[in-house]
Amino acid sequence: MSEITRRNFAKGLLGGAALALGGRGRASAQGAPARVRPSVVGGVLVGVQSYTFRKRTIDEMIASMRSIGLSSVELWDGHLHPTKSTPQQFEAARKKLADAGITVSAYCTEFANDADDDYMERAFAGAALLGASVITTSCEKPVLPRLDEWAARSKVKVGLHNHWLGDKWFTGDKAANFEGPADWAEGFRGRSEWLAINLDVGHFAAAGHDPIAFFKENQARIVSLHVKDRGADPEHTDVRFGQGATPIAALAKVLRDSKYAYAANLEYEIEENEPTEGLRDAFQYFSRALS
Questions:
Q1: 12: exposed, middle or buried (C-beta count within 10 Å: 0-12, 13-18, 19+)?
Q2: CA angle, corner 203, sides to 198 and 206, nearest 5?
Q3: Of the chain's two ends, which shows fewer C-beta atoms within 10 Å, N or C?
Q4: How confident is the prediction along the chain (291 residues), in pLDDT tens digits per residue?
Q5: CB 107 within 8 Å of CB 130
Q6: What pTM, to 2 d.p., does this model score?
Q7: Phi, psi at residue 218, to the nearest 5°?
Q8: Nearest 5 degrees, angle CA 137-CA 141-CA 146?
Q9: What angle do CA 223, 274, 247 make, to 5 degrees?
Q10: In whole angstroms, how far apart are CA 58 and each of 1, 62, 63, 75, 89?
Q11: Any bridge partners for residue 222, and if so which?
Q12: CA torsion angle for 51, 54, 60, 62 (degrees, to 10)?
């Protein structure tokens, strides 16, 4: 990243914070829609992974979150990409979210094995501009040494995301990816505590692992949860909450009782063209379990 770009990012970081704070009074004075109340249920912050809204704009996502009552988002890079979005766009997104009462719990972006320093710097700067102290990522093990360096330098936790590698879309090297406990154990060996876990409970259960037991054993290192429901059929089809085999209700009770400190992000991957009602149903189901 050039020195000019670096200065712009630094200015954006300060400006973004000022806009987020200053926009609240102006929004109220102009009679804008009410801010979302904190979506904390049973002491647990419930948010959404913005991949849920992959066919929607940030503005449309905010409108949906307002209507449902979700005050936290893990922002996916399909909405704001480190190299395709400017610092001003990161600032503007943070202001829109803040004006609606929505905070960014984490910034989600991929790190390719050959990601250069410019990409690394922009990704970590983007998280700072959004006010997020956590980055989540679907990456492979070869990039971990450099990712660990950047995480420690930036003092940002990086949650490594898991998938069920039996999904039809996956055609990569299973040994290089994250699916179960052994993969995180391998990835963390010799690394700092800045590398952490982004546990997707739906994928984890689909892969034949117990997300409840794993959470209890590794809570201190889990900095983001993706909560989805997948069926017991051979394809582990994504379904509405409560209709599948993922132990979501049991997980909710464990999160509540353990006073989990990070966001539990609902990730509703079906009905992608209009996910609002399905997400509302998911939030209600999860809230009942938390209560």
A1: buried
A2: 150
A3: C
A4: 443 343 444 444 333 333 333 333 334 445 567 899 999 999 999 999 999 999 999 999 999 999 999 999 999 999 999 999 999 999 999 999 999 999 999 999 999 999 999 999 999 999 999 999 999 999 999 999 999 999 999 999 999 999 999 999 999 999 999 999 999 999 999 999 999 999 999 999 999 999 999 999 999 999 999 999 999 999 999 999 999 999 999 999 999 999 999 999 999 999 999 999 999 999 999 999 999
A5: yes
A6: 0.88
A7: -130, 20
A8: 75
A9: 40
A10: 26, 6, 9, 9, 11
A11: 197
A12: 10
Q: How far apart are CA 192 and CA 226, in angstroms?
A: 23
CA distance 97 to 12: 16
Region for 190 from its dihedrals, namely left if φ exceeds 0, alpha if ψ lies in -120 to 50, beta otherwise: left
Q: 258 phi and psi, to 5 degrees?
A: -90, -5
Give the phi and the psi of residue 93 in degrees, each rounded to 5.
-65, -45
CA 49/CA 79 separation, integer angstroms: 11
CA distance between the termini of the chain: 47
Domain boundaries, the chain: 3-290
The amino acid at residue 52 is T
Residue 229 DSSP SS3: strand
CATH of domain 3-290: 3.20.20.150
